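We treat protein structure as text, and this decision shapes the records that our systems exchange. The tokens are whole numbers drawn from a learned vocabulary of local backbone shapes. One such record is reproduced below, unchanged from the form in which we store it:
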Amino acid sequence: GYRVLEKGSLSEAVERYGAYFKIGTSRYGKKLEELRGSLREMKPERLMVAFGGPYAGLLSICEREGRRAEELFHLLVNTLPGQGVATVRTEEALLATLALLRAEVE
């Protein structure tokens, strides 16, 4: 299952999950297919996945907070390449990303 966490800032939310393997989602991230097998090899016990929102993507949010995505996340992944739209609805991205990541780590 999954839990949704809302905090005052992205940095605060990510840092709350200190020992987790942290994945940020972005259309500017590496395509998941480029990472095939690498997640499985890392054998992360717990994943934390962060998504942007309808008004700002993850990289924009990081920039606004004066942080770089590389500081907060172990990986920045594009789970929906070729999406054909400027943004994907968060609820759609959530379901697709969790399904793809589950298949990748099992």
Observations:
- The chain has five helices and three strands.
- The mean pLDDT is 87.
